[in-house]
């Protein structure tokens, strides 16, 4: 899902509608919030395999010097629990490289506006927080996959609100509108959280 494809409203709508449909799926696999377990596991690996204090000083990692990572992880966990986000089936790698746009076979001028969006690479899918998928795709929004050396700019709230609105409307059509969990304000908070991880 290239940068130029993000400018085509039909394709953007289809991407966020399909994300809502993925989240509405009832897949017969274990339903657990793996996110906290993985955070703890990676924290443990870092503690056991890296000399964090030496690295922080050697590379002048001011943020890591200023804040205690374990305390921050505990704070993140508290926020997620407090959000009461519904557990949904998630892609867990919902990024532009896993969204393909197929060209219309009847179209000879390479205009993608009539193309079809296909989601791929579901190998990491599981149940989890819906904001995780939103955070991943929106962390790349407005840039190409090779632009990660450039400073990050978060999409404007007007862009976020329109994307979240597409997602919520499709979620309601899919009849997964858990009472009170599909408000734009709640979704925006959850998405912002995962985008900043």
From TrEMBL:
Keywords: Lipid biosynthesis, Lipid metabolism, Phospholipid biosynthesis, Phospholipid metabolism. Belongs to the choline/ethanolamine kinase family. Pfam families: Choline_kinase. It comes from Oppiella nova. One of its GO terms (molecular function) is choline kinase activity. This is Choline kinase. It comes from the Eukaryota. GO terms for cellular component: cytoplasm. Signal peptide: none annotated. InterPro entries: Kinase-like_dom_sf. GO terms for biological process: phosphatidylethanolamine biosynthetic process.
């Amino acid at each position: 899902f290239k940068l130029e494809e993000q400018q085509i409203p039909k394709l953007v709508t289809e991407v966020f509608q399909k994300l809502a449909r993925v989240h509405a799926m009832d897949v017969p696999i274990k339903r657990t919030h793996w996110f906290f377990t993985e955070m703890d596991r990676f924290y443990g690996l870092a503690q056991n395999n890296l000399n964090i204090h030496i690295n922080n000083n050697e590379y002048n990692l001011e943020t890591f010097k200023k804040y205690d990572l374990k305390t921050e992880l505990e704070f993140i966990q508290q926020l997620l629990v407090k959000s009461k986000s519904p557990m949904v089936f998630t892609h867990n790698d919902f990024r532009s490289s896993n969204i393909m746009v197929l060209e219309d076979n009847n179209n000879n001028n390479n205009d993608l506006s009539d193309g079809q969006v296909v989601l791929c690479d579901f190998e990491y899918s599981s149940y989890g927080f819906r904001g995780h998928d939103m955070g991943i795709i929106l962390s790349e929004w407005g840039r190409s996959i090779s632009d990660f050396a450039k400073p990050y700019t978060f999409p404007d709230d007007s862009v976020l609100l329109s994307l979240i609105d597409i997602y919520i409307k499709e979620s309601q059509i899919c009849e997964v509108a858990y009472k009170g969990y599909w408000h734009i304000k709640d979704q925006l908070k959850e998405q912002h959280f995962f985008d900043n991880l």
